[in-house]
């Protein structure tokens, strides 16, 4: 069996694994994210210790962002402007190549998760958006079977949105944009705007309508821009299970019957969905990046 | 010399040509759009009369929308829901194949224009958005060198936007969404909202700030979603030359320094640009579609 390495590089932890997208992980470890030297020393130790499993045919890195994703540019594989101490300019690919001389694929954690969701849902899907609503709002995009890169990678969590009147004068928490989508609707913004306990939010609390209205604007904009066949909504905030049907209804309302394939609530139920990937999707996506790099 | 056919199929006119994207048009005609039978009878007559130029290697159709663009679906090449009498369900490809048995490529007029702008700008661009602001707002997208299709084709002219306070209670003109981008910022909305003569709008009129604020939201959303290397702004409304620098400044403001490559007004001047394609870009794009279909 051909095996690969996978790194899901996050701001709080690095998850490393050896295995494959289809066969799962044979061995994994979780490393707390500190400075690059310390973190990558542990990553190297893990892969060296896993050498008994056999040689790796490739490595995939699903990285936190912003990160250079265009192989044609000098910043490919490097962490760009970030508030995380010590990480700006870190070359994720060079760090890994120091101890693993194999083909390396790299993309954002959310683009990798989008690839993993495409694989998990199956059925020949080619266009998908993966959205995680947690401490931030991350968006990964697959169009025509490939992750979307342009002048950077997708950052649609930061699009401008119409403010909900019930949010009053809440300024939003995004350090760059104030009241962009992430500034209004990510977990910390929810906590700052409302005095609510996540485990028990009253059904009549304005949170539901406010949060659904913002995430529906993202869904509508994505449908109208790249036209994903599925929008997968995950992350900590989406564990509020009442949100998903509210977002579907608001998105349907926003689209107003304009898009041929998105005219009924059944269309919304089919296209706006919770994650299907059982394992951590960023890690599965990292295996897919490794397999693509080795192909 | 290999020659191709091109049809730019618009709601008010069909422009037909024989030639190539590089060599230009050898012969063209403009046909007023009526019902499908009458219009295509004239299209057929043009191509039959142009037979003396030699056999065509392919045909490209740059069509008004909404139109099916996925070759895997039964509605491929068909006009979808449209208020234009008689056109809904019309199979553009079958109509053309009735008299031209050659490989046929089809895309939206704005996706075709995006291809034409990529070719006109040159320099190895792979990611571009083409926006036309006229009687409607159309958006064509090229990502990684290919036009973007998903569950439909891009319809980003209809994204929700933040209303500008100076627009007061203007309800917007979009029959589907009221105050979506097109409903607030396309030509008819400008005419309905303000009592202004397009040839002489006072410099202190609120139109400038209102219009720039809406189109800047589109630019920011596009940069944050598919990350085009260039956003080309064309169409009748953009003939107001003061708009372009205002849109650049507002987009820069909206992005707030978040995107690595888009941090200065010079970045905006390089990336938000007027059309570069000298000939009608939809027609040039139709030649490119023909050449791709024949390749």
Automatic annotation (TrEMBL), chains A, B:
UniProt cross-references to SUPFAM superfamilies, sorted A to Z: Actin-like ATPase domain (SSF53067)
Gene Ontology MF term list: fructokinase activity; metal ion binding
EC supergroup of this enzyme: transferase
Keywords: Magnesium, Metal-binding, Zinc
One Pfam family, short name: ROK
Signal peptide residues on this chain, from the entry's feature table: none
Catalytic activity line of the entry: D-fructose + ATP = D-fructose 6-phosphate + ADP + H(+)
Cofactor: Mg(2+)
EC annotation from Swiss-Prot or TrEMBL: 2.7.1.4
Descriptive protein name: fructokinase
């Amino acid at each position: 069996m051909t095996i690969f390495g996978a790194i899901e590089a996050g701001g709080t932890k690095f998850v490393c694994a050896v295995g494959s997208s289809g066969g799962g992980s044979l061995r994994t470890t979780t490393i707390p994210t500190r400075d690059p030297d310390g973190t990558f020393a542990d990553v190297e130790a893990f892969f060296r210790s896993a050498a008994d499993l056999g040689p790796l045919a490739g490595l995939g890195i699903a990285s936190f962002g912003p990160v250079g994703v265009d192989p044609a540019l000098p910043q490919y594989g490097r962490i760009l402007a970030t508030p995380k101490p010590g990480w700006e300019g870190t070359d994720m690919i060079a760090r890994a190549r120091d101890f693993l001389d194999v083909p390396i694929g790299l993309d954002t954690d959310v683009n990798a998760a989008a690839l993993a969701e495409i694989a998990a849902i199956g059925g020949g899907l080619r266009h998908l958006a993966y959205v995680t609503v947690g401490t931030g709002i991350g968006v990964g995009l697959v169009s025509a079977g490939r992750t979307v890169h342009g002048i950077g990678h997708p950052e649609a969590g930061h699009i401008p949105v119409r403010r909900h009147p019930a949010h009053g004068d809440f300024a939003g928490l995004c350090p760059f944009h104030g009241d962009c989508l992430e500034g209004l609707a990510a977990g910390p913004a929810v906590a700052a705007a409302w005095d609510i306990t996540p485990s028990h939010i009253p059904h009549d609390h304005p949170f539901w309508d406010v949060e659904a209205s913002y995430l529906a604007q993202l869904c509508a904009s994505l449908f109208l821009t790249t036209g994903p066949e599925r929008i997968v909504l995950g992350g900590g905030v989406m564990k509020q299970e009442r949100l998903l049907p509210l977002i579907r209804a608001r998105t349907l309302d926003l689209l107003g019957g304009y898009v041929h394939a998105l005219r009924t609530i059944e269309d919304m139920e089919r296209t706006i969905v919770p994650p299907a990937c059982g394992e951590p999707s960023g890690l599965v996506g990292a295996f897919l990046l490794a397999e693509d790099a080795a192909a």
